[in-house]
UniProtKB/TrEMBL annotation:
Domain TraD/TraG TraM recognition site: residue ranges: 305-425
Pfam families xrefs: TraG-D_C (PF12696)
Protein's name according to its UniProt entry: AAA-like domain protein
Xref: CDD domains: TrwB_TraG_TraD_VirD4 (cd01127)
Source organism: Botrimarina mediterranea
């Protein structure tokens, strides 16, 4: 068990910030840290990550975002640790704790998947996973947040709005389309709540049938939402299963599970983003519900902390992503975001680069590709003075045709301690990166680090060639969900995979009664 999370080793000695010849500059009396030396490990306390601080890592393809940064972080954060708190009875209690994890991998890194799975199993932790291949995926119910009492139904509507990127912001005409989509999602959620109250099954199939009904006049001009649910219906892993062994994010958080969403967007980009959005916002809603339920209750044990890792996060971040980052900390969620360049964060309706800069307390720069990256790093660097020398030759005294014995003058220029050339060198060095840490201990220079691969070359090649675990024998998908959507409701009800738990229980009671009657009076 360790309370320190290592990010890498110092690439070179840390520079001491020089004093400037300025009269009105405030400086702290002493540094809150020791200057780092080349080769020494640089680490941050685990509590820094558990406090809800978000992390952002940017680096181009092949720079090692997954293998050198995300994977080592995951391996260390998954380790158990000691936690101490004071309960309501005034007693100091200490337990061994573990955190919950959700990894959304839109890049499709098999080595990250298998290494995370192996370590989770070594630690005795439950590993759940979802993928785009129904034969290599566990089940996930996208409507697991809907309760029979309809509690917080508006929040559920907004959940789907954000998951499907249907919020068009405040741009001209955008709010009208957002409200229209919200009203349509409200009618869908009300329909699902009504079915839940009556003990019936709720699924994508029911939503698809509802949207396709021409008698529903309140769902006109709903082609976009109808198309979303129609495509998602083709994924059998998003249908409920009779075994009730679907991935439940509320239970996974409480049980401190490691949940992995392997959703490479290169092959099925649109649906991969939508499924990833569903998993993200369903998980956030589960964490919020757990927090709200704990309010006012006795403090017997701290709430579980949730780490959410999203590779290529910009592909699913919408206009409400800033609200998610600012509010996640309150509900015990730390987010780890990775993408390739700053330019990819700038969208037509939102600039995610400023959102990430303002809400992430740890920023890692593996590659620096544009002026904005240089400016950000140098903005966090302290001021320093550089001596500029100039010489003016006297024309009256000449030697070999040139002026000589000239006058020299010196001047001071205030510039940043971190030079542009230094940034270029670190960015061009394999495995090197800059880290900007906002830990409340005063200003610190961007930290030059060198990272290492967590896996050997052999392990990497082995994991990359492995397929995901086969789950085809775990679930009965003999009836295609797309076929079910085209059948009448009465016929779908009698197909075994479509039976709700309530209907299954009633049929079981009927069978038991029939067996008793036959035993007493004989067959027929």
């Amino acid at each position: 068990m360790t309370d320190q999370i290592v990010l890498g080793e110092w690439l070179y000695d840390e520079k001491e910030v020089p004093e400037l010849a300025l009269q009105d500059q405030w400086r702290p009396e002493q540094l809150a840290y020791q200057l780092g030396k080349a080769g020494e490990a640089f680490s941050l306390p685990r509590e820094f990550f558990r406090s809800g601080v978000h992390t952002h890592c940017r680096g181009k393809t092949g720079s090692g975002k997954s293998s050198r940064v995300l994977l080592p972080l995951l391996m260390q954060l998954m380790e158990p640790y000691k936690i101490e708190w004071t309960s309501d009875d005034g007693m100091t209690r200490t337990i061994t704790e573990q955190d919950a994890f959700l990894v959304i991998d839109l890049g499709g890194d098999k080595s990250l998947f298998h290494a995370t799975r192996k370590r989770a199993e070594e630690l005795g932790r439950r590993f759940r996973f979802l993928s785009l291949d129904s034969n290599h995926s566990e089940k996930f119910d996208p409507f697991q947040s809907i309760k029979a009492d309809g509690h917080r139904i508006i929040r559920l509507c907004n959940l789907f709005l954000e998951a499907f990127s249907l919020d068009h912001g405040l741009a001209y005409g955008g709010s009208w389309y957002s409200q229209r989509n919200l009203l349509l999602l409200l009618s869908i959620c009300e329909r699902l709540v009504a079915r839940k109250q009556s003990g019936q099954d709720i699924s994508l199939r029911e939503v698809d049938r509802y949207l396709a009904d021409p008698n529903n006049g309140n769902i006109k001009d709903a082609e976009q939402i109808r198309g979303i649910f129609s495509f998602l219906l083709r994924y059998g892993q998003l249908q409920p299963c009779a075994a009730d062994d679907s991935i439940n994010m509320r239970e996974s958080i409480l049980n401190r599970d490691v949940v992995y969403a392997y959703l490479p967007s290169i092959s099925e980009a649109t649906t991969a983003r939508q499924i990833a959005g569903l998993m993200l916002y369903v998980t956030v809603n589960a964490a919020m519900s757990l927090y709200e339920e704990s309010e006012g209750s006795s403090f017997d044990r701290p709430q579980p902390h949730l780490h959410v890792v999203i590779d290529e996060f910009h592909t699913l971040a919408g206009t409400a992503f800033e609200s998610l980052l600012t509010g996640a900390r309150k509900y015990g969620i730390s987010m780890y975001l990775a993408n390739q360049t700053t330019e990819s964060l700038v969208k037509r309706d939102i600039d995610l680069s400023s959102v990430v800069r303002d809400n992430c307390g740890l920023r890692l720069y593996q590659t620096v590709t544009g002026k904005q990256d240089f400016d950000e790093l140098q903005n966090f660097s302290a001021e320093a003075t550089r001596i500029l020398k100039s010489t003016k030759a006297k024309e009256s005294v000449r030697y070999k045709g040139k002026g000589a014995f000239g006058t020299e003058s010196y001047s001071q220029q205030v510039t940043t301690l971190l030079s542009k050339r230094e940034i270029q060198e670190v960015s061009a060095t394999e495995g090197a990166m800059f880290a900007i840490v906002d830990d409340g201990k005063g200003q610190r220079e961007p930290i030059p680090l060198i990272t290492k691969y967590h896996l050997t070359r052999g392990e990497f090649l082995k994991y990359r060639s492995q397929t995901l675990p086969d789950t085809s024998q775990l679930y009965d998908d003999s009836v295609n969900p797309a076929l079910l959507s085209s059948l009448p409701a009465w016929q779908c009800t009698h197909l075994e995979p479509a039976k709700s738990p309530a209907l299954t229980a009633r049929l079981e009671r009927l069978r038991s009664l029939r067996n008793q009657l036959e035993a007493e009076f004989g067959p027929g």
